[in-house]
Amino acid sequence: MKRLTENQVLLAVLALTMVFGLSLTRAESVAGAEQEAVRFNLSASMADNLSMLKGRTVTVYLVSGQTITGTVNDVKGNLLHLVKLSQKDFFDALVAIEHIAAIDTRVRSQ
Q1: How far apart are CA 52 and CA 11, in angstroms?
Q2: Distance, CA of 78 to CA of 43 (rounded, Å)
């Protein structure tokens, strides 16, 4: 079996470090792009605020006390379509906006 020289080992470690570092940087930039600054508009309706959150993860608090966490896919009429529900793989939710008491979403990173 061929032995690697010290320079080959160092080169391999450097290459792996660079690949790993680039993948971390890419993941951070994608996460940062998803979390652009957002503000709630107190003058707008619940539906309008939800429309501004398309593509973002939100938690919806229903008047019944139930909570649903997912990604806002669309808002039309009086319905909210959530996808990628938390802890429910392969499920979506369609929520009547008049049954929503509150929403929350991440608005700052730190």
Answers
A1: 48
A2: 18
Could you give the residue ranges of the DSSP H alpha helices within 40-98? 46-52
What is the domain partition of the chain in residue ranges? 1-34, 46-105
Fold type of domain 46-105 = SH3 type barrels. (2.30.30)
Q: What is the pLDDT of residues 1-37, one digit of tens each?
A: 566 677 776 677 666 666 565 554 444 444 554 556 7
Q: How many Å apart are CA 69 and CA 46, to the nearest integer?
A: 16
Residues 82 and 68: beta-carbon distance below 8 Å? yes
CB atoms within 10 A of CB 82: 23
Q: 66: pLDDT confidence band, cut at 50, 70 and 90?
A: very high
Positive or negative: CA dihedral 16, 18, 22, 28: positive
- Give the Cα separation of 62 and 30 in Å (integer): 31
